[in-house]
Amino acid sequence: MVLVPDYHHRWSHWHDIVDAHIKATRFASNQHRELSAHTTVTLHTLYTAGDNRSPAMTTYYLRGITMTSSSRTFAVLEILFFVVFALASKSLVLHWTMKYAGPITLISTLLLLTLYLRSQGKSWSQYGLKPLLGLKAKLLVIPQAILVFIAFAIAVGSVMTLAETFQITALLEVSDGVEARFGEVRDNLPKLLMWLAIVWVSAAFGEEMFFRGYLVTRLQEALPSSTLATIAAVIIPAIIFGFGHYHYQGIRGFVMTGLIGVAFGASYLLLKKNLWPVILVHGVIDSLAFVGLYMGAE
Predict the structure, then answer these.
(1) What would the DSSP string read from start to end of 47-90?
(2) Cβ proximity of 67 and 220 under 8 Å
(3) Of 207, 256, 218, nearest to 102 (Cα)?
């Protein structure tokens, strides 16, 4: 908890408020009462009520308050809504177009999510798109991206090693859906440029903003603070991420992209919820894949 003080306040009154808050909390604990959203009182409210000042003149805030059970329930329902919206809208658009269903529905979901976050007084800077202030912060993205790439390589290498060691056909064979969706890129410069644009807008930015920036962060807020909860906050979005690639990449794509999702999610948290290195790696890897496809590489 970090307290930001207004130096014009009377400190004696402040200590009285803190003491009253502690006693009230201990009493509730002794009575085995669970604090709910309706009974949680911030120091800001206590001060305003005790000193009869307007909220505008009071600048004490209690930060880092643990979410109550009702707040956690709301967060889970919020997450479910946007995940179901993304998956349901994609299943509908797939009847119209397989090639562009992912980008169309992901961008639509992000637009809706952005409007919702703004209505809640939030922005994407709270979900990974941190401002890179100064040259040093911008240059640090490069070594951070190298760490993300190492995590990516470990994830991909693990799948390939497992597949080759145990001769798992489902993990060795590339689905026909990949060729059906991206085969047009071969020797076709306009299609290559189109897909490179889609890659950076929908995959690099779009997928990382939704699956890592929003889902990982929001799940961490929704789940009780623990190591297990942090692991779940990384794995759950990774599973959804893998499932989103299953319809055209098959089981190989589900497993591969799922583990890549774990690598990217873990990197995101290790980098203190900074999405920029993850976005950079995602965009570069996909771009190289399309350039290779354009040049006829298998």
Answers:
(1) HHHHHT--GGG----B-SPPPPHHHHHHHHHHHHHHHHHHHHHH
(2) no
(3) 207
Nearest Cα residue to 260 out of 104, 179, 150, 172: 150
The two three-digit tokens of residue 57, written as one number: 């003149």
What tens digit of pLDDT does each residue of 152-165 get? 999 999 999 999 99
Among residues 255, 259, 272, which one has the least CA distance to residue 220? 272
Residues near 85 by beta carbon (within 8 Å), at least 6 away in sequence: 109, 112
Site of tokens 């400190």: 11
- Give per-residue pLDDT as tens, 119-160: 999 999 999 999 999 999 999 999 999 999 999 999 999 999
Q: CB pairs under 8 A, 24+ apart, for 33-40?
A: 34/69, 35/68, 36/68, 36/69, 36/70, 37/68, 37/70, 37/71, 38/70, 40/65, 40/68
- Alpha-carbon distance of 84 to 143, in angstroms, equals 36
End-to-end CA distance of the chain: 54
Based on C-alpha coordinates, what's the Rg of the chain?
Answer: 24
